[in-house]
């Protein structure tokens, strides 16, 4: 299987960004570049997490959240998700947790994001 990309829209308190994102089912977490997080106004939590990145290194990265929407055929999947903001990243990454939360999966034969299950309303992220 090669690289899989999808178009996603991230929305925060300042606006939105829509663009191509790498989809990585081997990555648990979703990552935004600092520039995109700043542009959309991602809401940062007080938490910095030690996360593993490609190459086996561990780094400290701030945790934030924003709305993410991914269009699959005629259906849009949208919800508030946690993201990590990582210095030095060149492109946003959609990880397995975000895919599962949105009810999406990657078909390795077509290298496309697909619907994995029916959509249900989720209420969460209490203040």
Number of domains: 1
CATH fold title: Cathepsin D, subunit A, domain 1
By CATH's scheme, which homologous superfamily applies?
Acid Proteases
What would you call the structural class? mainly beta
CATH architecture title: Beta Barrel
Radius of gyration, in Å, reads 14 Å
- The amount of helix comes to 10-25%
- Biggest sheet statistics: 7 strands, mixed
- Give the oligomeric state: single chain
Describe the global form: globular
DSSP, total strands: 9
Low-confidence stretches: none
Q: What distance lies between the first and last C-alpha atoms, to the nearest angstrom? A: 40 Å
CATH class: Mainly Beta
Would you list the SSEs in sequence order as H and E? EEEHEEEEHEE
Q: State mean pLDDT (0 to 100 scale).
A: 90
Write the layout of secondary structure elements.
Blueprint: E1 4-11, E2 16-24, E3 31-32, H1 34-40, E4 43-52, E5 58-72, E6 75-85, E7 93-95, H2 96-101, E8 104-107, E9 112-115
Question: What are the salient characteristics of this protein?
Answer:
2 helices, seven-stranded mixed β-sheet, two-stranded antiparallel ribbon, mainly beta, 127 residues, single chain, Cathepsin D, subunit A, domain 1
What would a concise description of this structure say?
The chain has 127 residues and is mostly beta strands. It has helices at residues 34-40, 96-101; strands spanning 4-11, 16-24, 31-32, 43-52, 58-72, 75-85, 93-95, 104-107, 112-115.
């Amino acid at each position: 299987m090669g690289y899989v990309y999808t178009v996603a829209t991230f929305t925060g308190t300042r606006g939105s960004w829509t663009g191509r994102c790498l989809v990585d089912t081997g990555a648990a977490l979703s990552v935004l570049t600092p520039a995109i997080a700043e542009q959309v106004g991602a809401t940062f939590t007080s938490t910095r997490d030690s996360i593993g990145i490609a190459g086996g290194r561990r780094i400290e990265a701030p945790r934030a959240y924003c709305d993410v929407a991914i269009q699959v055929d005629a259906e849009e999947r949208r919800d508030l998700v946690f993201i990590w903001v990582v210095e030095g990243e060149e492109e946003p990454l959609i990880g397995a947790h975000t895919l599962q939360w949105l009810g999406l999966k990657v078909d390795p034969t077509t290298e496309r994001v697909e619907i994995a299950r029916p959509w249900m309303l989720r209420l969460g992220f209490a203040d």
